[in-house]
Amino acid sequence: MRTVDIIQKKRDAQPLTTEEIDFIIEGYTSGAIPDYQLSAWAMAVYFNGMTAKETADLTMAMARSGDQADLSSIPGIKVDKHSTGGVGDTTTLILAPLVAAAGVPVAKMSGRGLGHTGGTIDKLESIEGFQVELTKQQFLRQVQEIGVAVIGQSGNMTPADKKLYGLRDVTATVESIPLIASSIMSKKLASGADAIVLDVKTGNGAFMKSLDDSIKLAQAMVEIGEQVGRETIAVITNMEEPLGEAIGNALEVREAIETLQGKGPADLTELCLVLGAHMVQLGGKAASYEQARAIVSELLHDGSALAKLKQLIGAQGGDAGITEHPELLATAAYQVPVLAEEEGTVSQIDAEALGVTAMLLGAGRATKDDPIDLAVGIVLRKKVGDTAQAGETIAELHMNNNEPMFTEDITQRTRSAFTFVQGEVAKPTLIYAIVT
Ligand code: URA
Ligand code: CA
């Protein structure tokens, strides 16, 4: 087989065989195929697309390119969840204990934040003592014993995806549905999930800005799941504003605890109940979505899910007392209100701009090795549909540096992330569609 022939075939819009796709991915991972040939191949895929079978073959080839988690020693259906990227997306911290409390084993590998998006692993590290690195044996044993563990991605998982994603980033080939779908699904398959619930964000703050494209991406991923025998469903959700109120590591842990105490923001609570119900249903613990929904709602409101979070934190060496006293989490030295300049109704909140602002505050990393400040961030006091009077607080900055020029810059950036209009604005739709 010659790489150039495979590139030519895709250039001429012909489907590739399983063997040809394996050849490309194995060759690229090992270094036998150079970047310039993979660049040409990726551009050919960008223009000519892939069939459902090619996309599934590509996903499997990437999933096999490195280590794969073996969760077979854990009884039950392991259901994983993935979000296509969010700002202030606190859901994993809530869903992991919620779904585990329903008896669905959660063996979760999560990432760190980069750029304007946060990562679950950084958030968990804002809990004093919490260990995000466990050995394979410790990880499996903890899931067997208490039904849940959340660790950082370790070892050499999906190296093909890492390399290809880096290449796509600099060759204008990121925005290809088969390439995005296979990239996301390969990581889920390598981490051992039997079934997958996808939260595909749509809108301004999302990777996919239009509902149409979001549904196409969701369909491509659900189709991959079907082709490779892992039941997959996708929920298309709103990203015209950040989810919940808190953006920042310790602030989001606090928000997760409040949500598990039944006092969380309405949108975050509802999204967790919807995603959690789908996970419980796929995990075989309910016969219907309605039954699953009743189960997770009960577990959220009767304290069982919070108790499971406490158990999870304790098992991984963290200070479990924060589940009763979230005020013991790291707090920033200064709380600075951002005030509305005139009266109006919020029509949009630019999630990406707030993600960048939180990063500048120190909550996130511009590059992979930057240190982060776990205590800082932004808390929204107004969301889309809310009105504000002139001088009313629309957001609160949690800062460890109150130098006037810095404070002014961060305040301006936060204020300009809000769009105000006159008159009423409807609360945004949270769930747009379910793709199965
Ligand atoms: N997220 C991924 O993991 N991969 C992509 O290609 C795009 C978004
Ligand atoms: Ca949040």
TrEMBL record:
The protein's Enzyme Commission number: 2.4.2.2
Put simply, this protein is called: Pyrimidine-nucleoside phosphorylase
User: Could you tell me which Gene3D superfamilies the record lists for this protein?
Assistant: Nucleoside phosphorylase/phosphoribosyltransferase catalytic domain, Pyrimidine nucleoside phosphorylase-like, C-terminal domain, Transferase, Pyrimidine Nucleoside Phosphorylase, Chain C
Q: What organism is this sequence from?
A: Paenibacillus agricola
The record, for Pfam families, names: Glycos_trans_3N, Glycos_transf_3, PYNP_C
Nucleotide-binding keyword on record: no
Give the enzyme's main class according to its UniProt record, as a single word. transferase
Going by the UniProt record, its keywords in alphabetical order are: Glycosyltransferase, Transferase
